[in-house]
From TrEMBL:
This is Nucleoid-associated protein ACFQ04_08670. It comes from Williamsia deligens. Gene3D superfamilies: Nucleoid-associated protein YbaB-like domain. Homodimer. Residues 90-108 have a biased composition (Gly residues).
Amino acid sequence: MAGLLEQAQKMQQQLLEAQNTIAATELTGTAGNGRVTVSGTGAGDVTGVTIDPAVVDPTDVETLQDLLVGALADLAQKRDELTSSTMGPLAGGLGGGIPGFGGPGLGQ
């Protein structure tokens, strides 16, 4: 039982380190071949927006709006990929599971 508790504490520390790594990572989402760029953190904060003046057309605001939405979606996808790759090895639970709980990980 002591070994299981030690393993759980180690996993908790690894999860905390992974969360901190994700939160501190800067990501960039782009759209329109890089004409619109949105920067943000792995924690979900948007930290900047860059718009190429060439895409600013007062008679076509919809295109600019679409490009912003596309850049934000790209940023979100990259954030999801970062989370998956960083947390992936830790998502398996406690390795072989806990005897008596019916399978790998907790609650499975």
